[in-house]
Amino acid sequence: MKAKGGFSTHVELRPAMLKHPADIEISLKDGKVQIGRAHAVYGVPKRVASWLRSVHADGLSERISGEDRSPVGILEYVEVDQDYRGQGLGRRLVEELLGVLDQKGVQVVYLQASADVGGIPERALVRLYEEFGFKEIGRTGDHADDPVMILEL
Ligand SMILES: CC(C)(COP(=O)(O)OP(=O)(O)OC[C@H]1O[C@@H](n2cnc3c(N)ncnc32)[C@H](O)[C@@H]1OP(=O)(O)O)[C@@H](O)C(=O)NCCC(=O)NCCS
């Protein structure tokens, strides 16, 4: 793949450090420089759970809010260094993270598609997640209007 400066290099994906067992980072193989990461935690915060109970999306929101105690993965943060975007790395991060969550027995994944200002347009971000099977069920979140998306693994 092409890296910054036009030279070819390779990347590797690996589990990130300790804090959350499902985190993934992507690095340059030669320099070990981290150029992206994705982050997953388990279980939705209380205020999100109560919002979810008010959205009736084919029973999925009830599952995610924890009512049937099925394991829920929360995809919180996906980021690729600005110089390395547009080369398929973001997609690989999401793919890898979903694989890890699946292996850990997670059945439902929740995310708020919150695109950084000036970065990927929200529409493109939502489309990326839709390609993995995520469905938008409403809008809420830190900015009150982020698309909320869920996926059954
Ligand atoms: C979201 C992000 C991780 C995507 O990383 P990336 O490595 O550039 O993504 P990819 O190269 O794998 O591209 C994935 C898809 O998104 C599309 N895309 C990426 N950036 C885009 C842009 N600026 N405008 C339009 N489409 C874009 C790509 O075209 C691609 O779709 P395609 O294969 O159908 O063409 C990256 O933009 C980023 O770090 N943004 C800042 C953090 C952020 O907003 N994170 C979202 C948290 S929910």
CATH architecture: 3-Layer(aba) Sandwich
User: What order do the helices and strands follow?
Assistant: EEEHHEHEHEE
What structural category arises from helix and sheet content?
A: alpha+beta
The CATH C-level name is: Alpha Beta
Number of strands: 7
Q: Which residues sit in consecutive blocks of at least 5 with pLDDT less than 50?
A: 3-8
- Could you tell me the mean pLDDT? 80
Please tally the helical runs, counting DSSP H or I stretches of 4 or more residues. Answer: 4
Bound molecules: coenzyme A
What is the CATH topology classification name? Aminopeptidase
Order of strands across the main sheet? 1-2-3-4-5-7-6
The Cα radius of gyration reads 16 Å
Distance between the termini: 30 Å
Q: Which oligomeric form is depicted? A: single chain
**Total individual domains:** 1
